């Protein structure tokens, strides 16, 4: 039986033929207006639009090649993974959507260029790079919007990692998700900075997929999220266009905290933030009262990301010595 996700691959890809070796890279991304909650979990169709900034050369490089030993295998950062590893199983299941029954065993090698010490998840860049590599391997000449639709099925946030700079993922309306993919914003903002303040670099306590689904299913606060999040996404878009960091930062920070409020109200509660996260936030809010123009956002983990402009970089680094600053619009 063909599932709904496979029908999208069948529609977008040419008939399967023997794969070639191919390699691709993709940046990670941080959402300034978050994706949280699916209206269709099988197709990863979101309840609201989201908007991110890509992390330049922090991302994933993935190589796909026919397996000389005729055994599927996956390597992550040079280490061959057991077949039972969740990452290996997800990557091979995704590759299966391109193979469509063809007997073509593959070797998949992914290297993350995001420093482990930054504590950032890499599923977005990983699935975006894997999608690009598999499209090249199977001779699928898709435009980036088509690739974004396929990457979205691997992991929602991956559909924003097909481009550098600011990317919006439209919620879309079509039941098959044809209008739910990323597209790049034309805005180039050279002074825009993002910093990662590592709080917890260990594996996630709760995978975000399960966390998101639990929030939608059980949180009494979730009902207010989709409409507010959609408005936040539009406000972030407008603030980028106006190069208005204050509005962007205030909106992004409130959006992230509102997302965490929906999680806190889930039953049982879903708590990603740690005591040290709140220490970082208190320090930020005190510094902001003293004039620092910087704002925070947090994802499905305890680490804090700060949003600011180049002229605040020195003060951010002084207030948060472990901060790793990224200039998203510098040449790679
Ligand atoms: C985001 N997150 O917009 C939000 C904010 C985490 C918090 O997208 O189930 O790995 O694969 O679609 O994309 C993390 O969730 O989830 C995420 P799936 P994904 O960046």
Cα Rg: 20 Å
Largest sheet: 7 strands, mixed
Share of helical residues? 25-40%
Name the shape in a single word: globular
Query: Based on helices, strands and strand pairing, what is the structural class?
Result: alpha+beta
CATH architecture of the largest domain: 2-Layer Sandwich
CATH fold naming of the largest domain: Ribosomal Protein S5, domain 2
Uncertain runs with pLDDT below 50, 5 residues or more?
Answer: none
Chemical compounds bound to the protein: ligand 2P0
Order of helices and strands: HEEEEEEHEHHEEEHHHHEEHE
Number of strand elements:
13
Please report the distance between the alpha carbons of the first and last residues: 44 Å
CATH top level of the largest domain? Alpha Beta
Average pLDDT, all residues? 96
Structure description:
It is a single chain. The chain is of the alpha+beta class and 332 residues long. It has two domains: 4-184, Ribosomal Protein S5, domain 2 (2-Layer Sandwich), CATH 3.30.230.10; 192-326, GHMP kinase, C-terminal domain (Alpha-Beta Plaits), CATH 3.30.70.890. The protein has nine helices and 13 strands. The chain has helices at 4-12, 86-99, 123-137, 144-154, 208-218, 225-241, 245-264, 275-289, 313-319, and strands at residues 22-33, 38-40, 45-46, 50-66, 73-76, 79-80, 106-112, 166-169, 182-184, 192-197, 294-297, 304-309, 324-326. The radius of gyration is 20 Å and the shape is globular. 46% of the residues are buried. The model has no long low-confidence stretch (mean pLDDT 96). Bound molecules: ligand 2P0. Ligand 2P0 is lined by residues 31, 34-36, 44, 50, 123, 155-157, 208-209, 212, 299-300. The site of ligand 2P0 has 15 residues, from helix 5.
């Amino acid at each position: 039986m063909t599932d709904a996700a496979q029908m999208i691959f069948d529609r977008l890809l040419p008939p399967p033929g023997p794969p070639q070796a191919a390699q691709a890279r993709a940046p990670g991304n941080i959402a300034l207006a978050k994706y949280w909650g699916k209206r269709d979990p099988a197709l990863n169709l979101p309840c609201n639009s989201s908007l991110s900034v890509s992390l330049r050369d922090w991302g994933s490089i993935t190589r796909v090649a026919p397996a000389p030993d005729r055994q599927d295998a996956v390597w992550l950062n040079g280490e061959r993974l057991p077949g039972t590893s969740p990452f290996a199983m997800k990557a091979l299941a995704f590759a299966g959507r391109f193979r469509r029954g063809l007997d073509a065993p593959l070797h998949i090698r992914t290297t993350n260029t995001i420093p482990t010490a930054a504590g950032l998840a890499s599923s977005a860049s990983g699935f975006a790079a894997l999608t690009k590599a598999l499209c090249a391997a199977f001779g699928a000449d898709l435009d980036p919007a088509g690739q974004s639709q396929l990457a979205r099925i691997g992991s929602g946030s991956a559909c924003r990692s097909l481009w550098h700079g600011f990317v919006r993922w439209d919620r879309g309306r079509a039941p098959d998700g044809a209008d739910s993919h990323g597209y790049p914003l034309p805005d180039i903002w050279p002074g825009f900075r993002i910093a990662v303040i590592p709080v917890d670099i260990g594996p996630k306590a709760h995978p975000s997929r399960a966390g998101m689904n639990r929030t939608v299913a059980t949180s009494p606060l979730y009902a207010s999220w989709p409409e507010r999040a959609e408005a936040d996404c539009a406000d972030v878009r407008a603030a980028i266009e106006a190069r208005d960091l204050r509005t962007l930062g205030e909106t992004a920070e409130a959006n992230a905290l509102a997302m965490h409020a929906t999680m806190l109200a889930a039953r049982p509660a879903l708590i990603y933030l740690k005591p040290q996260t709140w220490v970082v936030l208190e320090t930020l809010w005190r510094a902001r009262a003293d004039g620092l123009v910087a704002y925070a956002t947090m994802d499905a983990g305890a680490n804090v990301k700060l949003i600011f402009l180049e002229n605040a970089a020195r003060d951010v680094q002084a207030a948060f010595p472990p901060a790793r600053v990224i200039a998203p619009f510098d040449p790679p």
